Amino acid sequence: MANLEKKPFNPWLFTAAGAVIVVVLAILIANSPDPKPAIPVGNPNVVPETVVVPETTEDLLAHGANLFARNCATCHGAKGAGDGEAAYLLNPKPRNLVLGQYRVVRTLNGLARREDIYKVITEGMPGSSMPPWDRLSEKDRWALTDYTLSLDSKREKKVKKLGLELLNPVAPPPMDIAVLEHGRSLFQQACALCHGSSGRGDGPQQQFDTEGYPTRPRDLTLGLYKGGGEPEEIFRRIRLGMPGSPMPALGSISDQDAWALTHFVKSLAKRDAQSVVRQKYQTIEATRASGPVPEDPFSDEWLRRPATALGLMPLWWRETRIEQVETRCAYDAEHLWVHLAWDDATQDDSQLHLQSFSDGAAVQLTSDADPPLFAMGARGSSDVRIWFWKASKQRDTDHGFADIQTIHPNMYTAHYQHMKGGPLAVATPFLAEGDAHDPRFLTGRGAGNVVSTPNKQPVESLSAHGIGTVGQRVHNDEGVQGRGVWRDGRYALILRRPLKQSGAKALSLAVGEQAYVAFAVWDGNLGDRNGQKSVTIWHALRLTP
Amino acid sequence: MQRSIGIRARALAFSLMALSLANLSGCGGSNGKASNQPKPSSGKSTSAPATPVVPNEAKPVATPPVSSSSVGAFPEGKATTLLTGVVRLEGAAPERKPIRTDNDPVCQKMHEGAPLLDEVIIAGAGGELANVLVFVSTGLESYTFDAPDDVQVLDQKGCQYVPRVFGVMVGQPIKIRNSDTTIHNVNCQASENLPFNLSQAQKGMETEKVFEDPEMPLTFKCDVHPWMRAYGGVFTHPFFAVSKMDGSFQFPRKLIPGEYTLTAWHEKLGKIEIPVSVKGGDSHKVELRFKNQPK
């Protein structure tokens, strides 16, 4: 990052029009032939039959099968049995779609309607690693919906016989203290065993889903709901349960009681938590820098730019986590700059103890018009590029390489009695005292293995074409550089790469063009490493002229 | 709610037979004892764990092919013979161990002094085996039956399911009730029918359910009280019964003379099938013997 650091500070960096515009779903809606949103969120009075949806056809199903193989199979498995190659990294587990037990349903008999699946595909499931697919067109999402439903071979017969009668919540009673108190008392009877008496998801009841996997009840104080946080949706989860999960249907209580419970459950929750966590496909505008770009990630010139806040989801869901990463992007004639900022109360920049893990962040890029899966790309697609910054490497870069001997300087003399001063001291010990870096004993480093070699810079340049394929671009032919700083419970990181690349597999970026970008953040304090991380979905990255 | 429906029993019996094995292992798997399930006797294999003892008949049943044109209402007038029998367990009956109910003080209090005993195998001194679901598995393909309006109650009482084993007809209503002052949930694991998981937090709560497809067995469990289990069979005909404490059972209606296969199912001991040739007369008595397979 030497180049970065030498540049002078300039308060006016970007063009005036460089505000980052957050476009939520706008592209999709603009492209849609039907301007009405397909799923009226939070309004139970709109009956889904009125929604214009494509008819299920063989063509649509075939299209859905292709999309599924491309976007879903890595987690849900090639046949939808919830056994994809990434499944082991995920909790809650990817759904076994063959069983046809969908958690978020609105029918009295628990059979999913098309609209239920469409809504989950569109919005994802906050509180799990099911991302939203609002980047895909409506037609694509309906195709995925129909293909997903077709994985349950018994569905057609059951729907024909049993129908899909909706539970339509009656109008909620006016809420007052008495209703809330009634809800509290019902909650203690009916819910506290699992959700805990204060709703924190800490009840004593052990839980398993229908496939035998251990599960945890929702911490209702967090305000995150897989099926949406609108009162009508919570009412439905209470009345209908969540098929396949241990959440039972409270089918024997009255509507009034169910509403009292709904009000009480809502009263436990943080406000607006759902909107913070919910991932949405966004467009990140990289603006042209008019002068030198500051090298200090905490410089006001960076931080005062409008940021795009992106929701992060831990692959293995947990309640303590980094919720969002903010990004600001810029470019000049030669370089693209990606600035990231996120909250992390602890600086973890050492991996030298067995129990220590480093903080980190990564940017993933592709210029494919139809990007491969955001989880490290896909086999058969072109490589995704990954810029991987680690706090431990930053520390090595800033303060010199550190290893075990740095934290245990006497480790060898303490252990080897044949060394000088030891009881069995010999004239020429095979390992000189205090020297852990004799290349004869560091074969990996001796052979030039990039993993064993001390870090000279904090960013690695990687590429991948699917889970388990990540590899280092040994000579950093992308020319990625970066610098990250932790200050007062917050990280700020700048990454920089030349816009133009040469070579057969080059990923060049040009003004006016669009690429896709995704981010990952590791919190070392929580043991994050490798596939244990929090990620975003693909977002569009556009270099605005 | 449509309660009285004609059911086409042809083919369903076959699917029942095919399914029963898979279902057995599926349900037994919940306590990890699937491998202990005896295989059904094939008639050829003498080493089958549960060899049926057939006092009256020895010939295997050949199920005649049935053409769809011959399917019709059961000719009640020709039904002459009441099938009764007794189910026994060969060998020593396992001791019924007390169940720890201390995870729920309400259940514990209810059984103070007289602890709740394990209900998996309930056998008398002479081997009389209770809670065996006996049903006709082949021989009724030509007939249709109306579902009764009688409501089968599945009660949760004393932190147990009452009854533990029952049969219903397709379309027959089941009333699920909580008679306890503690929370129960009824987690019904079904594959042909829709599974459901119903919470009943308060005493007196009731919900009615109807199963629309034959299935054997359905498993009902309470996640709060892991010892609570119930099993149900859903049939296309009324010829099923559950053995009582004295091991006896009796079908609720009379059969017409003919060749049948009788299946007896026990949650732990598995399933045995015997051919039965009903020749006429007022009654026809059979004896079914299960063998206990020690672990």
SSE blueprint and pairings:
The complex is a heterodimer of chains A (545) and B (295).
Chain A: H1 2-6, H2 26-31, H3 58-71, H4 73-76, H5 114-123, H6 138-150, H7 155-162, H8 177-190, H9 192-195, H10 231-240, H11 255-268, H12 273-277, E1 283-288, H13 300-303, E2 308-311, E3 313-314, E4 324-331, E5 335-343, E6 360-366, E7 384-390, H14 391-399, H15 404-407, H16 411-415, H17 443-446, E8 459-464, E9 471-472, E10 481-487, E11 490-498, E12 514-522, E13 534-535, E14 539-543
Parallel strand pairs in A: 1-4, 1-14
Antiparallel strand pairs in A: 2-4, 3-13, 4-5, 5-11, 6-7, 6-12, 7-8, 8-9, 10-11, 12-13, 12-14
Chain B: H1 12-28, E1 72-73, E2 82-90, H2 105-110, E3 133-138, E4 143-144, E5 152-157, E6 160-162, E7 165-169, E8 173-178, E9 184-189, E10 196-200, E11 206-210, E12 215-221, E13 229-235, E14 240-242, E15 248-250, E16 258-266, E17 270-278, E18 283-291
Parallel strand pairs in B: 1-4, 2-18, 5-8, 7-13
Antiparallel strand pairs in B: 2-15, 3-14, 3-16, 5-6, 8-11, 9-10, 9-12, 12-13, 16-17
Question: Any overview of this molecule?
Answer:
- Chain A has 545 residues and is α+β, with helices and mostly antiparallel strands.
- Chain A folds into 4 domains: 39-161, Cytochrome c-like domain (Cytochrome Bc1 Complex, Chain D, domain 2); 177-275, Cytochrome Bc1 Complex, Chain D, domain 2; 282-401 and 461-543, Sandwich (Immunoglobulin-like), CATH 2.60.40; 402-453, no CATH class.
- Chain A has helices at 2-6, 26-31, 58-71, 73-76, 114-123, 138-150, 155-162, 177-190, 192-195, 231-240, 255-268, 273-277, 300-303, 391-399, 404-407, 411-415, 443-446; strands at 283-288, 308-311, 313-314, 324-331, 335-343, 360-366, 384-390, 459-464, 471-472, 481-487, 490-498, 514-522, 534-535, 539-543.
- In chain A, strands 1, 2, 3, 4, 5, 6, 7, 8, 9, 10, 11, 12, 13 and 14 form a 14-stranded mixed beta sheet that branches.
- In chain A, helix 8 (177-190) packs across helix 11 and helix 10 (231-240) packs across helix 11 (255-268).
- Chain A is globular.
- The two termini of chain A are 27 Å apart.
- Chain B has helices at residues 12-28, 105-110; strands at residues 72-73, 82-90, 133-138, 143-144, 152-157, 160-162, 165-169, 173-178, 184-189, 196-200, 206-210, 215-221, 229-235, 240-242, 248-250, 258-266, 270-278, 283-291.
- Chain B has a single domain (12-63, 71-291), classed as Sandwich (Immunoglobulin-like).
- Chain B contains 2 helices and 18 strands.
